[in-house]
Specification:
There is one protein chain. The longest helix has 11 residues. With 209 residues, the protein is of the alpha/beta class. 24% of the residues lie in helices and 23% in strands. The strands form two sheets. An eight-stranded parallel barrel has the order 1-2-3-4-5-6-7-8. A two-stranded antiparallel ribbon has the order 9-10. The radius of gyration is 16 Å and the shape is globular.
């Protein structure tokens, strides 16, 4: 069964509402240029999210020491790296926190070179494939999923990039055992960083049919 990651909450009440939906993962953005940057006050709530939900910190080219600090202070269960982090960076993080999942995100388009992923195979737990844009995610746009036919590695991945209610039928047709989880974000918002819990409920209902 596909897992679900809901990413980009920034307000306390909304974080609580999303946690009630019991997704597999909740993602919180610590990239200062993002409109979904979580505040210091709201970030404190991450530690109190039910243990069965894996809390993920999203970082973009952040100093490794700062990432480690957030893992320790907020008890993060996963780290999603959305910049140009090297395999060595990922490996150092994994070495320091063996039980924390390391998710390396890549922006994908028609010309994406999947061979660039090989260096990461031994240093991460999952890839995340998002739509390639000048920004680091949150574009609300999908990419052509057929390019994933060129993905030849066995490493499981998260599928991201503009996923919406309208995509449930197409997602169900994806026949790929490596597809581990769906990552939803901007298409389920009333404003940047505020999720529409009712729409997410509908998505979960449709995916479970």
């Amino acid at each position: 069964m596909l897992r679900l990651k809901i990413c980009g909450m920034r307000l306390a009440a909304n974080i609580a509402a999303v946690a009630e939906l019991q997704p597999d993962y909740m993602g919180f953005i610590f990239y200062e240029k993002s409109p979904r940057l979580i505040s210091e006050v709201s970030a404190e709530l991450i530690r109190y999210i039910p243990a069965q939900i894996k809390t993920a910190g999203v970082f973009v080219n952040e100093d490794l020491g700062k990432v480690k600090e957030k893992i320790n202070t907020l008890n993060l269960k996963a780290v999603q790296l959305h910049g140009g982090e090297s395999s060595e960076y990922c490996g150092a993080l994994k070495l320091s926190f063996p039980t924390v999942e390391v998710i390396k995100a890549f922006g994908v388009d028609e010309d994406f070179d999947f061979s660039a992923l090989e260096a990461y195979l031994g240093t991460i737990d999952y890839f995340l494939f998002d739509t390639k844009t000048k920004l680091h995610g949150g574009s609300g746009k999908t990419f052509n999923w057929s390019v994933l036919d060129r993905y030849t590695y066995t490493k499981p991945y998260f599928l991201s990039g503009g996923i919406d209610l309208e995509h449930t039928a197409a997602i169900k047709k994806l026949n790929d055992d490596r597809l581990y989880a769906l990552d939803i974000n901007s298409r389920f918002e009333t404003e940047p960083g505020v999720k529409d819990a009712e729409k997410i409920k509908e998505f979960i209902k449709e995916m479970n049919k």
